[in-house]
Structure formats: structure tokens, C-alpha cells
Specification:
The protein is mostly beta strands. The protein is 11% helix and 67% strand. InterPro entries: Beta-barrel_OMP_2, OMP/PagP_B-barrel.
Length: 183
């Protein structure tokens, strides 16, 4: 009986400590997406404005360091302009960024950096642009600021490392502006 009581107190203590170090939340915002890198002959790439939304979790490791995994739906792609036609290529991804979060100041300013893996879940084109790869990998980095204990804003850049289109030597390039709330 004493062992059961001791184990219960230990589990309760660990869960209380973990609750203070673990926060869940939601976020959403604007994407400014384009293709970079290679060249599709005769076309110029133009930025598209789209959106992202999803869930965020912050796991505090130390006072000034946390790990922040997110699960987002994010639309990316580009508009191609050339040969007297405009082609809009919008790719919908389920993205999983896992960011190291370094708090730079005590008032909530932080630097975020880490990998982002994405799986293609939808594609919308006004003209057939060829086959898309179903997986995208990127490096993401940016700044975040906690306005209150729960409310935050962030700005991030994600540089694609894989090709979203099979026939084109291009990479995704993404700027995200977000607002979110941690509970």
C-alpha cells in the first residue's frame, strides 16, 4: 500500500511539473509563397498570398529554451506568368515543423529554428502543371513575441530543400506571418 501511495504522489508531482512546462495552442495567419531556384523557361515566378492554420505545442526544457512542434495546414506554390498566360499552382500541405526556440529576452522575444516536413494533401491549378512530389522538406527560422502569457505573434521563413514539382528544378519559398494563443 505504501508503494502505491508513493507512486501516486510521484506521478502527481511529475504531471504537475510537466503541466507548467507544456503548453498547447492554436495559430493561423498569412503565407507569402513562391518558387525559388531553377528556371522554367519563358515563365516568371510571382508570389501568391495564401494561409496556414493549426495546432502548436511548446515544451519548455530550460528557462530560455523550448522545443516547439506544430501541425499545420499550409498552402504554398507560385503563380507563373509567361507566354501570354498566367498559371496559378497552389499546393496544400500538412506540415510538421519542429523548432528549437531560444528566448532572447525575458519579455517574450524568441528565435525559432528547425526542420519542417510536409506532405502534399491537395493541389489546385488552373492549368495542368505536371506531377507534384508528395513530400517536401524545409528549414524554417524566424522570430516570435509573446504579447501576453498566451497571445503571441510570429514571423518565419521556410526555405524548401526538395522539389515540389517533378519536372521543374524549383524549391518552395515561404514567409509566414502568424498570430496564435497558448493555453
Amino acid at each position: 500500500m505504501k508503494k502505491l501511495l508513493l507512486l501516486s504522489v510521484l506521478v502527481l508531482g511529475i504531471s504537475t511539473t510537466q503541466a507548467q512546462m507544456l503548453q498547447f495552442g492554436v495559430k493561423g495567419g498569412l503565407n507569402f509563397a513562391n518558387y525559388t531556384g531553377g528556371d522554367v523557361e519563358g515563365f516568371d515566378f510571382k508570389t501568391i498570398t495564401s494561409y496556414h492554420f493549426g495546432a502548436v505545442m511548446e515544451v519548455k526544457i530550460f528557462e530560455n529554451f523550448a522545443i516547439q512542434p506544430e501541425l499545420l495546414y499550409s498552402t504554398q506554390g507560385s503563380e507563373l506568368d509567361g507566354f501570354s498566360q498566367q498559371i496559378k499552382n497552389e499546393l496544400g500541405y500538412l506540415s510538421l515543423p519542429v523548432l528549437a526556440k531560444f528566448y532572447l529576452t525575458s519579455n517574450g522575444l524568441s528565435l525559432e529554428l528547425g526542420p519542417q516536413a510536409s506532405v502534399l494533401v491537395s493541389e489546385r491549378n488552373n492549368v495542368d502543371t505536371g506531377d507534384s512530389n508528395t513530400f517536401d522538406f524545409a528549414i524554417a527560422g524566424g522570430l516570435s513575441y509573446k504579447i501576453t502569457k498566451g497571445l503571441f505573434v510570429s514571423a518565419r521563413y521556410a526555405a524548401g530543400l526538395t522539389e515540389p514539382k517533378k519536372e521543374a528544378d524549383v524549391k518552395n519559398s515561404l514567409v509566414q506571418l502568424s498570430v496564435g494563443y497558448l493555453f
